[in-house]
Records
---
Amino acid sequence: MRLWRLLLRQWRLRPGRALATVGSVAVAVGAVVATWVSADASRAGYRRLTETVEGVPSIDVSAVTGGRFDVGLLPRLADVGGVRAVVPLFYRPTLLRVGEKRVREIAVGVDAENLVAIGLLTLVAGRACSGPDEIILDQSLAASLERSVDDEVILFVRRGVRRVTVTGIAESQSLKWFAEGAGVVADIAALAEMSNALGLVDRARVVVESATVRPSALAAVAARLPPELVGEVPAGRSSMAEDMLLSANLGLDFVTGLTVAMAWFIVGNAMLMNVSERRRQLSLVRVLGATARQVQRFIVGEAAILGGVGALLGAVGGLAAAGPIAAGISRALQAPVSTIEVRPAVVPVAIALGTLVAMAAGWWPARQAAAIDPLEGLSQAPAPPARGVPWRMIAGALLLWAVAAGVLGLVLSGRVPPRTAVPAGIAMMLAFVATTPLILPAVARLAARVIPARWRLERTLALEQILRQPVRTALTTGVMVVAVSNGIGLGHAIRDNVDDVLRWYARLLRADWVLSHAGVVANGMKASGPTLVQAEEDVKAIPGVDRVEGIGIATGRANDNACVIVACEVHDGEPLPVDPVGIDDTTVRAALERGEALAGTALARRTGIKAGDEVAVEVYGRTTRMRIAALVVDYTSGGSSLVMRRDVARRMFGFEAADILLVKAAPGRAADLKEPLAAVAEKRTMLLRSFGELKQFIDFTVGGIVASLQSILFLGFVVGSLGVANTVTMNVLEKRRTLGLLRAVGMTSRQVTRMVVIESVILGIVGGLLGTLGGLVTALYIQFSSQPLLGHPVRMSFRPGVIIANVLAAILVTALAAWIPARRAARLDLLQALSAE
Amino acid sequence: MERRVDVVILQVEHVRKAFAPAEAGGTGVTAVDGVDLAVERSEFVAITGSSGSGKSTLLHLLGGITRPTSGSVRLEGVDLATLGDEALAVVRRRRIGFVFQRYNLLPELSLVENVALPLVLDGMRNAAAEERARDALARVGMDHRAGHRPDALSGGEQQRGAIARALVAGPAIVLADEPTGALDSANSRRVIELFRELVEREAQTVVLVTHDPAIAAGAPRVVRMRDGRVESDTIAAGAPSR
C-alpha cells in the first residue's frame, strides 16, 4: 500500500493529533521504563541489604539425608563458572578452658591457610592454623578470654583434652559467612580426627563471585552433584532474605504490570480517538475503493510508526526520569547509587513493547475503521456514536475475570508459584475496566450530582458527552481507575505488611535495651554473632538490670530443609515472644516447655510441615526429632524458622550463646543502664541500642522500602495524570465540530471552558470511585496472593486516609488536566471548527 | 423499453431497499421499492425526484456502496450482491467512478494526489498513478491546478477535480450524486457540459442524480422517481440514438 504519503500529509496538516498520539505512547513507555528501572533499583537495593548481611555470596552443598557426608562424594566444583572457591566445613561443639574460665564454643574446621591465602578469611594478628595443635580465635572471643597469638588454651573434644596454641586472631566480620557463630577455627582434618570423623564434613560452602551469578552457578553445581548431595543457597542468609523480599518484589511486579496496563489504556484510547476523528475521511477512502483490509493495515501501520517514535522518546524520557527516582530509592534503602544498573535490554525492549502495544491498541480501532459504512462518509451529518457496549467486550471481560479467579485459586492452593498472581491480577484489572461501561452511566450520573445546580446546562452537556460513548469513557477513566487502584491497593497492602512486621518486632523485642553483635538485629537477624556468653554474664552483673533474655540464632535443617533455629526464652507471666497461628498461648507455652518446637509459617509452607508433625532437626551436625507444636508468624529470615526454648536448644544442640540480649531494667532504672551497657558493648564488640533507637532504626529501614514502593506508585500517578491530560486534549480535538456548533448557537467561551472542565471533573470522580472499588479488590488480591509467600494471612485494615488522598488526587489531576484543552476549546475559531472533517 | 443485452452495462431488477427502524431513526422506511432499470454503455442518465424519493439510495445501490434488501444490481453482468466486501471494494475502485455533491477531496492531498488515490489503492506506484492522474485532470481542464490543495481551489474546480478522480481508473460507469448541488449556476452548467462531453467524445457512461429539473434536462434520458419507485423514464427528443 502506498498510502504513506497520505499519512505524512495528515501528520503535517494536523500535527496535534499525531503529536498527541506520540505523546500518549511516550508517556506510557516512559512510565514503563521508569517503573522498570526504579523497580530494578529497588531490587538492587534490597539485594545490597542482604549481601551486606551475607558478606560473601555462596552456595551450600550438604547431604540429602542430613548429617555429615564423606568428603570423597564431593565432585570437582572449582571449575564451575562463577565459582571462586570450594570450602568444606566441619562443625563441632567444644569446651574451651583458659585458666579457670570454661566456655562452651562451636569450633569450625576449614583449610584456614587456603582461606587466608585467597582473602576469604582476614586475620588481625598472627597466621593461619595448620596442624592438630593450632587454632584461630575470633577477635571478640579472644578479647573476652584475654588470649592473643601464641597463647595456649585447652580444648575439650570427644577424644579427650588437647592443649592447642592460638596462631591467629580472626576479624569477626570475615568469619560470618562460614563460621555460623563458631568462635574457634581449626584445621578441618585435625578437628574431624579429634571427633572420630576423619574424612567427613558437615557441608561444603561454594563461594561464588557475586550474588548475580549465584543462580546459574547453583544450577551448574547441582547438575554435578551425586544423588546423595544437594546444593542450595545457605539458610539464614540471602535465600531467606530473598523470601522476605519476595513480597516486596510481588508488589514491584504488580506496579510494573499495572503500568503496562495503564500504558495500554492510554495508547488504546489515543488510537481510538485518532480513528474516530477521521471516520468520515476513512469512509470516503472506502467509497473510493479501499478494501477493509487496506484501511486496517493503514491504521495499524500508523500505530506502529507513531508507537515506535513515541516509544523511543518515552524510553529516553523514562530513563532520564528513572535516574533521580532510583537514586532516591537507593538513598532510602541505604544502598549506593552505583548498584543501580540499567539493563541494556531495557531500551530496545521498551521500544519494541511500545510499538507492539500501540499496534495492538490500534488493532481494535482499525477494525472499527475497516467496518465503517462507506455511506457514513457521504452523509452530511456525522453518524452518532454507538451507545451500547459490545458484547464481545463483556464476554472478554468475563473471561478475564474467570482466568484471574482461577489463577488466584491455584496460587492459594499452592499449585502455581505466587508470582503467577501478578499477570492474573493485571488481567483482573483489565477485566474490571472492561466491565465498567456497564455501571458507568449510573456512576457518572451520581458523580454529576456534585456539580452545582447553577451550572446545570454545562453539567447536562458534559454528562451527555460522557455517556454517548461508554466504551471510550471507560478507557479514559481506565487510566485513572488503574492509577487510583494502584495507589489504594498497594497503599493498603504495603502498610498492612509493614504493620504485620512491626507487630512481630514489638512482640519479639520487648526490652529497654538491646545488645547484639553488629549486624544481627540491624539486618533482620540473619547473621550469627560470636559467643556472647561472657557478655550475658557481664550484663547480668550490672546493678539495675531486672532481667536479661537471650535469643540465639543458628542455621540448621528441619526434615532436610534449610531453616534458621531461633532459641528464645519464655517466662511465666510474660507474653509469648511469638505469634502462634490458630492456637492459644497457654497450649503453646506448655508444648515449648515439653521440648517441642514451633515452625515459622513460611517454613511450613515451603516444607509441608504441619502442627503435630515430628521432624528431624539438625544443628551443628546433631540430629534430634522434635514435635512441632504449632505454626507461628515469624519474620526471622523470612519466616523459615524453627523456634524453640533456649534451654531446649542448649540441651539438644549445645546451643550456648545468645546472639541478641534483651535487657529489661528495674523500674525507673532504664536510663542508668546506658553507660554500663555501652561499656559491655565496647568490650565485647557489640552494638547497643535502646528499644526506642531500635524501633527508630527498624522504622527507618522499613520506611526505606515503603518509600521506594511509594515513589514508584507516585510515578504511576504522574503517568496517569499525563495520560488523562493527553486524553482530554484529544477529546477536545475530536469534538471541535460539536464545540463549534455549541458556540455558534450562543454558548459563551466561558461556558465552553466550564463544560470541558466539568466533564473532566466528572471523569475524575468516576475514576476515583471505580478506582476505590478496584483498589480495595487489589488490596485483597495482594493479601491473598502473598499469603502463600508469608504462610499466614496478613490482617487487612481499612485506611480512609489512603482512599481520600487518592480520590482527591484523581479529581484534582483531571480538573487541572482539562484546563488547557478547555481554554483551547473556548478559543476555537468558529468557521474552522464548523468545517472540521 | 427494450434494450440490447450486449450493450447494457448496468441492469437493475426489482431492487428494493428497506431501512430497519433503528437506521431510519425509529420508523422503518422503504427507500427504494421494486425498481427496474437498465443503463446502456455510453448513456447519460439523470435520475431525478424530490427529496426522499429514493434517488440517492438508488445511486448508492448502483455503486455497491450499500446492498439491496432484495433484487439484483448487475454491473457488466456481475451481480454486486453476490460479491464480498473486499471484491466489492475492488469493483468500486476499478469499474465505478463516484462524484459527490461536496466533492469529498482529501484536504491533506494535492489535487493530483487526490485524483491518483483510486490507482494507488489499486497498488499502482505513486509516480505512474500521478501520471495518469495528470491525464485525467487534463481531460477536465484542470491539469494546470494539479499541485494545489483542495482548499486553494474554487468549488467548481474542486468538482472538476472530483470528476477527474472518478475517471482516472477508466471506470465502466460514473455515478454522480447531486454534483452541482454546491455550485453556482455557471459552474453547474460547466459540470453538466463536462459530463456530456465525456459521454459524447469518450463514450463514458454517466448516471447522475439531481433534484434540479433544469440540471436533469441536460441529460438525454431522465428517470423520475417518487416514493422509491420509478415514476417515469423518458428520453429527450433529439437525443442520440442508442
---
Amino acid sequence: MNVMNIYLKTYTLLFAILFIVASSTVFAQQSDYQIQQEFRTELAELSERVELAVSTEELEILEQEIASLRDRYAEHSNIINAAIFPETFERMVSRVEENRAASADRAAVIEQLNERVDELTAEMEVFRNRITQMSADAEDLQDQIERSAASESRQAALIRQYRQNLEQRDTFVSNFLEELLMRYQTMDRSTQEELADAAERLEDNPLDLIKSIVAEYISVADQSSGLEAPDYIGMRAQHGYFSDVWNRIGDRLVTTFDPEREVQAKQEVEDLLAAWLASVDNRLWDSITTAFNQSNIQLGPFTSPETFNTALNNYVDGAYELSLESNNDEDYTTYRNFRDFWNNTVKASWGEALTEGKILSQSEIAAIDIKVSNWGEAAQPTSNLMFILFLVSIAVIIGLVVLLITKKN
Amino acid sequence: MLTKYLTTLSVIAALLFTAVGCGSSMVIQDVDYSQPIESVLTPDADQVIHDQRFAIKFSIAKVLEQEGIQSADEVRLIRNRAGYYFLTAKGFNNVYVFKPGENELKKKEIIEISSEGIGDPAFNQRDRYIELVDRATGQTYNLDQTGRR
C-alpha cells in the first residue's frame, strides 16, 4: 500500500513538473513580445553578472550560459531584431560575449597577480625570518665575544663564527637582491601598474624589507667588535653592490610599492644607504691603517677612498725616491715587505672587495702596481764586484806596463 | 495658320491634362504597414497612450468606455500588413480594429473574443493575419480587419 502511495506521489509530482515546464514553454513562446522581453531581461542579467564576476570559474559558467541563451533565442532572432532595431540579436549577444572574454582576461591577470602577491608575501616572510634569525645569532655571538675577553683562543673562534655569520648574511641578501633585479629590472610598465594595485595588499613589501635590511646592516657595522679590515672592506663591497642594485631598480620599486610617495620613499632608502656607508667607513679606515701598520707599513692618514689612494701613492713614491738615493739593503727589505703585503693581502685577499666597495678602482691598483715595480728596480741593491774587477784589471794592466818598461830599460 | 496654332494649343493642353491626371491618381500598391512586434503601452492619467517607437499617440478613453471599465494597466497595440491598428488589454472582451485617417483612428471592427474578458492577451504578427494569444488560457485567435479568420 505504502509502495503504491509512493509511486502515485512520484507520478503526480513528475506529471506536475512536466505540465508546468510544458505549459510555461508553450505560453512563453506564444508571445513574440514576451520572447524578446525575456531575451532582453536574461541578456541584461547575464551582462550584469559579467560585470560583477571576479573569478575565472564564474566567468566560465557565464560563457556556457551566454552560449545557451544564444542557442535558445537564435530561432527568434528575427522577432528580436525587429523589436530591438537598430540593435541586433547578434550584436547584443556578441557584445556580452566580448565583455565576458575581456572580464575573463582581467580575472586571469588578477588571479595571477594574487598568486604572485601570495608568493611574494611568503618569500618576504621567509626572508625576514631568516634575517631575523641571523641577526639574533650575530647578537648572541657579539655578546659571547665580549664576555670571552679572558680567553683569546675562544674569542678568536667566536670571531671566526661571527665572521661566517656575516658572510652568510651577505650571501643571503645578495641572492635576494639578485632575485629582485631579475624580477623588476625587466618588468614592463603594465605589469608594474598591475603589481602596484595588488601590492596594496602586501603587508611586507620588498621596499620595506630593503629598508629593514639596510637598518640591520647599519646596526651590525656600528656594534661589531673584533672585526678587522677585510670584514669592513667586505661590508663596503656589500654596500656597493646594494647601492648598485638600488640604482638599477629603486625607481621601479618605489613606483610599484609606494606609488603615492615615490620621492619620499626613494629618499628614505638613499638616506639609509648613506648612513650605512658612514657607519662602515667609521671603522674601515682605522682598520685598514691598523692592517698596514701591523705589516710595518706606515701610510699617511686617510679617511676616504681618495685619501687612501693618495696615501698609498705617496708611500710608494716616497720609498721609490729613497731607494734611488740610498739603494741599500734596508730599502730593499722595505720594498719586499710592501710588495708582499700589497700582492698577497691587498690584491689577493681584498682586491675584489676593494673594487666592489669603490675603495680602489682597477686602474688605481694597476697604477700602484707599476709604481711598485719601478720601486723594486730602484730598490734592488747594485753589486760592487764589477767595479772591483775593473780596478783590479786596471792595476794589472798598469803593473804589466810598468814591468815591460822596467824590463826594456 | 490658325489651324496650326489651334492644333499646337490642343496638344499642349492635352499633355497638361494628362500630367495633372496622372498625379492625382498615383497609388503605390502592396504597402506593408505591419508592425513586427506588438507595443505594450501604459496609459497616462488622461488615458492617453504614446508609442514612441512606432510614433503614434491617442486616447483610449472611448475604448474603455465601450468596454465599461475605468482604466487599463497595459494596452496592447499592433498594426497589420494592411495598416489597421488592433488594440486590446487584459480584461477586455473585444479586440478593437481601427483604420488610421487624418488625425483620427476610425473604428473598423470590434471583434468579440470572450464575454469573460481576455485573461492575458498578446498580439503576434503573422504572415497574413494577427494572432491573438490569451496566455491565461493558451487559446489563440487569428484576426484581420474584418474579424476572426
